[in-house]
Structure formats: C-alpha cells, structure tokens
Amino acid sequence: MRTPVVMTLGMVLTPCGLLLNLISTLTPGWRLVKGFLDQPVDVVLYQGLWDMCREQSSRERQCGQPDPWGYWEARPVQAARGLMVTSLAVAALGLLLASLGVRCWRDEPHFALAGLSGLVLFVAGLFSLVPVSWYNHFLGDRDVLPAPDSPVTVQVSYSLVLGYLGSCLLLLGGFSLALSWAPWCEERCRRCRKAAPAGPRRASISTVHVDWPEPALTPAIKYYSDGQHRPPPAAASNSAAGKLKVGFPMPRPPPKAYTNPMDVLDGEGDPAATSQGASSRSTRPCQSSLPCDSDL
C-alpha cells in the first residue's frame, strides 16, 4: 500500500521542526543588544537561553560573557529553558511513534499509532511556541528581561525566528499525522454497524390495488352495437349478454371500384382486327394483378 499523503507530509515537516527547535535552544541568539556607550560602535551582544556572546565587526566572537543585569534570573528565560527542552523530548517521542505507525514494518500503515504520534507532535509544537511567544512579548521590557538603559537597543535575533519556524512546522506536521485517524475511525464505525443486530424490518408497500366501483351511466348516453341503436340493457342481463359497445358509429368509407387500364373495345369494330385480336388475346400481357375484362 502506498503511504498516504498526510503521513508523508507529517514525516517531512516534523523532523525539520525538531531540528530548528534544537538549533534555537542551543544557540545564543534570542536577543541582540547593541549601542553600548563604553564599547566600540560595532560591538553587539547576543543573549540566548544558556550563553551570551560578544561580537565585534563579525570578526571576533567571545562567548561565556558575564551577566551583570540579572538576565538569567528572568522568568521568561527560566520558562523557556524548561519548555524548550520538554518540547524537544516530546518531539523525539512523537517521531519514534510516527516511524512505527507510518510503516511499522508491514504492508499497510498503523493508522491509530500514526494518529497518536501526530497528537504528540502537536503538543510538542505547543510546548515550544509558548516560550518563544512569551519571550518575544517581553523582548523590549527591561523590567521583565533586564538590559542596559538607553541608548542601548534590543532587537530580535535569529534563534527566536528559528524557534517560531520550528514550532509552526511541528504543529503542521502533527496535525497532518493526526489526520491518519480518519481511516481508522471509519473502519471502526463500519465494524460497529456490521456487529449491531438488525431490528425487524418494516414491510414496504410497493403497489396498492384499489377496486373502485363503476359509475352509473346516465340515460342520456345511447348504446350502440354494430352501428345500430339499441335500448339500455337491464342490469340483470348485462353479465349474460356480454359487454356492449358505447359510443357513436363512425362513417365507413365507400368500397373502391376496380378500373381496368386496358381498352376492352380495342379491335372490335373491324372483323379482321377482331380475328387478329382473338388470336393475339392470349399473348397480350395484362398490366393488372386481376384478370382482364377482355379475357373474360
């Protein structure tokens, strides 16, 4: 059996989402801080969930920077650490279930297991989307996410974008795999309908025969039989005499007269012609299917 499209789509999107979430969790690029007064103009600071890196003109990159503002103790950072790791673990479990359910080393996929893996992957996408959205909401709030005062500016960095993309891919892939429950539910419903006892069937009426009484004929209607007028028959003798014809006689066409196309008097004026006609009468062809008058 060919693998359904929803399973194939889910198996393509979910590994990509898991990879993007892994990169987003490990890389120190959730927030970009720049514009320090006591630093060169091209110095920027990348802040992540586990590390901070200082970069200058894209040439020098020093990680493991100290945190003088209390960034690590911020609630969005602490929640993002736990939820992102949980999302990675749940997504790995969902991918394992999806690998067993989509093929399961058989000719036909295991639709119920594939649908369960889709639900697990969808939950993993929610676990990663919540911290990413929460962090992005308080990105510029220095009371929630501490940062140096103005003119230092904070911006969204690449890790937060990758977290959004990974979460969306996990949600789409999990939803696509969850659609594998449709054939499984359909098969279960079909089995339940077959196993249910059939109740008594109602008798269906296909044809209804109704004997309507014949209407009484009025005296104004005349009865005719073979074109002759007869008085109305009695009700008692109607069954013995048989059915009578009701209606008016139609005029009959006159009989067609037979006409012979041959001239029967041809040759009777001349005796010679008469004897000659008598000898040739038997050889003259007749143009009609009836006998010729001259032959008679």
Q: Care to describe what's here?
A:
- InterPro entries: Claudin, Claudin_CS, PMP22/EMP/MP20/Claudin.
- This protein has 296 residues and is an alpha+beta fold.
- The protein is built from 7 helices and 7 strands; from the N terminus they run H-E-E-E-E-H-H-E-H-H-E-E-H-H.
- The strands form 2 sheets. The protein has a 5-stranded antiparallel sheet with strand order 4-3-2-1-5. Strands 6-7 form a two-stranded antiparallel sheet.
- It is 43% helix and 9% strand.
- The protein has a domain at 5-186: Butyryl-CoA Dehydrogenase, subunit A, domain 3.
- Strand 3 and strand 4 (60-63) form a beta hairpin.
Number of strands: 7
The overall pLDDT, averaged over residues, is 75
The CATH architecture assignment of the domain at 5-186 turns out to be Up-down Bundle
How many distinct helices? 7
H-E order = HEEEEHHEHHEEHH
Task: Give the C-level CATH assignment of the domain at 5-186.
Answer: Mainly Alpha
Radius of gyration: 54 Å
Give the N-terminus to C-terminus distance in angstroms.
95 Å
- What share of the residues does DSSP label as strand, in percent? 5-15%
Give the biggest sheet: 5 strands, antiparallel
**Low-pLDDT residue intervals, each spanning 5 or more residues:** 277-286, 292-296
Query: How do the strands of the widest beta sheet line up side by side?
Result: 4-3-2-1-5
- Helix percentage: 40-55%
CATH topology of the domain at 5-186: Butyryl-CoA Dehydrogenase, subunit A, domain 3
Tell me, what's the shape?
A: elongated
| Oligomerization state | single chain
Structural class: alpha+beta
Family: Belongs to the claudin family.
Transmembrane segments: 79-99, 111-136, 156-184
Membrane topology: Multi-pass membrane protein
InterPro entries: Claudin, Claudin_CS, PMP22/EMP/MP20/Claudin
